[in-house]
Design a protein that fits this description.
277 residues, alpha+beta, Glucose Permease (Domain IIA), 9-stranded antiparallel beta sheet, two-stranded parallel sheet, 13 strands, 25% helix, globular
């Protein structure tokens, strides 16, 4: 296990220890003074800051040109949390997300539900045009990881639901590890030290497995709403390794599209050698 991986595991464990004792303390007498119970949290904060500093330094020192790949979808989409507007695009370098992008499907005949301040609290996944959309291989590649056993949950696109997501659900998922944050996901080895990751896949939609060779444009899975997700959407990123805990982000550009900015709508053609949907 690398030093970075060990540090990530220790960081997560320290927070788990702190939370477990905080929950248990009203019901049992802990065998140490009250102040000692804060030590895991203090150590976790210090280690987290050190990991963040290291990630920022490595990002500043890295100089990789964008890797051109095909779009991971076809049709009309718009961008959210785009690296064209800021990096890190999701506010963190964690999980190789420095240059990650979220995209949602746009369908004039079936518009995306608007954000609700109070009601409805949540919507069904099928209310969103992105749900079930085919996800395509962005290049000829080898599948190194693929899973689709986690459930697709209701949307989190109301104010109370977003508060719940940020204060409760996200915390639990982060403590449970990267795969609970990304939900169902697939990682492709594109060669030359570059890997592509697609997150929040629809449960049971995978058409490939680890070890398979895939062709650019081949359907891999379907868009879903698993993991740390507010609504059905595609989270896509390139990174320099297959392990989300240690990977660093790699910039990308989509052939024929570029890198769409936040709220920019774009049309993506199916990749070369595309399979029928």
């Amino acid at each position: 296990m690398s030093a970075r991986k060990t540090a990530v595991v220790v960081h997560r464990t320290l927070w788990l220890v702190f939370i477990v004792q905080a929950v248990a303390s009203p019901f049992v007498d802990l065998p140490y003074p009250y102040w000692a119970g804060w030590l895991p949290a203090i150590a976790a904060v210090a280690l987290g800051l050190a990991l963040a500093r290291t990630a920022r330094r490595e990002h500043a020192e890295a100089h990789r040109d964008p890797v051109e790949v095909d779009p991971p979808v076809a049709g009309r989409w718009s961008a959210l949390n785009s690296p064209a507007d800021r990096t890190p695009s999701h506010g963190t370098h964690q999980y190789g997300q420095t240059y990650a992008i979220d995209i949602v499907a746009e369908d004039e005949a079936r518009p995306r539900p608007r954000f609700a301040w109070l009601w409805p609290l949540a919507r069904r996944t099928t209310d969103f045009p992105a749900f079930g959309a085919p996800l395509l291989a962005v290049a000829d590649a080898t599948v190194v990881h693929a899973e689709d056993g986690q459930r697709d949950h209701l949307s989190r696109n109301s104010l109370p639901a977003v508060v719940y997501l940020m204060l409760v659900e996200s915390v639990v998922r982060v403590l449970a590890g990267a795969r609970r944050v990304t939900g169902n996901h697939i990682v492709l080895d594109l060669g030359d030290g570059t890997y592509a990751m697609y997150a929040h896949l629809r449960r049971g939609s995978l058409t490939v497995a680890a070890g398979d060779r895939v062709t650019a444009g081949q359907e891999l899975a379907r868009c879903g709403n698993s993991g740390n997700s507010t609504e059905p959407h595609v989270h896509f990123q390139l990174m320099d390794g297959p392990d989300l805990d240690t990977a660093r982000g790699v910039p990308f550009t989509w052939r024929g599209v570029g890198v769409p900015r936040n709220k920019e709508t774009f049309e993506a053609a199916a990749g070369r050698g595309a399979y029928p949907a």
